[in-house]
Amino acid sequence: MERSGSFEDGVFPLDVWQRGIKHLQGELDPQIFSAYIEPLKPAAYDKDNCELTVAAPSKLVCNHVDQNFKDKIREIISDKLGMSDIHVRFSVDPSLSDSISEFEAGKPVVIKKTRSMSLAQGSPAVESGIRFGQPINPRYTFENFVVGSSNQFCHAAAMRVAENPGQSYNPLFIYSGVGLGKTHLLHAIGNAVLRNRPSARVVYMSSESFTNQLIQSLRHARMDEFKNRMRAIEVLLIDDIQFMCGKERTQEEFFHTFNALYNAKHQIVITSDKIPQDIPGIEERLKTRFSWGLTADLQAPDFETRVAILKRKAALEKIQLPADVAQYIAEKISSNVRELEGAFTRLHAISSLQGVPISLELAESALKPLVQPKQINVTVDDIKSAVAQHFGIKVSEMVSKRRTKNLSFPRHIAMYLCRKHTTCSYPEIGTHFGGRDHSSVIHAANVVKSKLENVDEVKEHIAKIEQMLFG
């Protein structure tokens, strides 16, 4: 253990704090460190009670650090001081928000694969800033968004956007499959902005709602009113942008709305089921703009987080959920949070109707219709080996920098299959293929997809390789 020199009551030695923070920096992802830890400052030290007060720049950062990093900070500071009874508390000092971290600076970046989950909880409605669009659901907040080890990036990005609309990442583009928390984060951003500034002009709407309101405005000759209202929005939350595909007039109007809001430094948050480049039927100029800010991928929660989601939901609804039952549900339902919560709701309903307590035996019986047969999971290495074997080449040749046709075609096939059958993001796949850029992986996957539509030979190659992988 390291020991610091003496210090006065009320003043915490800065060198101890800096050494502790440096230690944390080595353990956390740079963006998480920059977003949550770097802005913290030691505010006061009560020597009699051995209590350190740490200041955070905002309530959101304060709450998140208190929930996720308090024990770690206490452990490190205690070690640096050579004391075992240090207490740590957090307070908000708005003056610290003047120092914008690199995470807040709004540099374009693509977040790696993340996993996400959501859980609803009742809270007072906050709708005073909404002018039109659809209601923001007060049940979806950051406080009841269950954060796991693999979804901190997207959660951090959404919180930063809520704290500094139009100043951090603009636009924030969130994509994932169904039921993984995209809509929860949209509403959480809206609720947080309105809680901090009730007069803010925050609008949530699905892409379908945008289209319908546009049609109504055209029908009643009120386009000027529609344009003025859209361009006056300070935070625009658009859900499921992929449903604008093929709607040229809608895309045209959204293009101009996007430009007006972006140039005015008003925040735009968009969700989709695909990354911008992969959304069919969307104009290239829109895809380019969607990629200007930060693109974050939400994915299914890991086992530990699924258990945490179930426990949180049970606690909120005041339902007794035995630990073995929570683990059973989390093990059997892994596709998305919506199905996980649906399984819990079904179990509780059957328990209530039958007048019996929730037990493992009841869970096995009640959830039997929902439990899917286990799928065979393959890794990137599995796919590389199968492709190399199929084409009669070495894996080392396939991941090399050589671009001869006999290597580039199998490489494209392998990248496509990695994207299709693993949870790896484009950047992650690129690292497995000689450190290639994510744009190279996207190009490879798109080439194979286009050939699958009209080249039978490619279909045969894919079918044979998948037969090798899955039997």
Report the sheet-strand fraction.
5-15%
Q: Order the strands across the largest sheet as they lie in space.
A: 4-9-5-8-7-6
Helix content: 40-55%
- The overall strand count is 9
The CATH homologous superfamily name of the largest domain equals: P-loop containing nucleotide triphosphate hydrolases
Encode the helix/strand succession as letters: HHEEHHEEHEHEHHEHEHEHHHHHHHHHH
Our Rg estimate from Cα atoms comes to 25 Å
Biggest β-sheet description: 6 strands, parallel
Predict the CATH topology of the largest domain: Rossmann fold
What ranges have pLDDT less than 50 throughout 5 or more consecutive residues?
Answer: 1-7, 98-131
The span between the termini is 55 Å
- Give the rounded overall mean pLDDT: 82
How would you portray this structure in words?
- A six-stranded parallel beta sheet has the order 4-9-5-8-7-6, sandwiched between helices. A three-stranded mixed beta sheet has the order 1-2-3.
- Helix 2 packs parallel to helix 5 (152-163).
- It is globular, with a radius of gyration of 25 Å.
- The protein has helices at 14-25, 30-37, 59-68, 70-81, 152-163, 182-196, 207-219, 223-231, 248-263, 284-290, 303-316, 323-332, 337-354, 360-366, 380-391, 395-398, 405-421, 426-432, 438-452, 456-470; strands at 41-46, 51-56, 87-92, 109-113, 172-175, 202-206, 235-239, 267-272, 294-297.
- It has four domains: 14-98, DnaA, N-terminal domain (GMP Synthetase, Chain A, domain 3, 2-Layer Sandwich); 106-297, P-loop containing nucleotide triphosphate hydrolases (Rossmann fold, 3-Layer(aba) Sandwich); 303-366, Helicase, Ruva Protein, domain 3; 380-470, Chromosomal Replication Initiator Protein Dnaa, Chain: A, CATH 1.10.1750.10.
- Residues 1-7 and 98-131 have low confidence and may be disordered.
- The chain contains 20 helices and nine strands.
- It has 471 residues and is of the alpha/beta class.
- Helix content is 49%, strand content 10%.
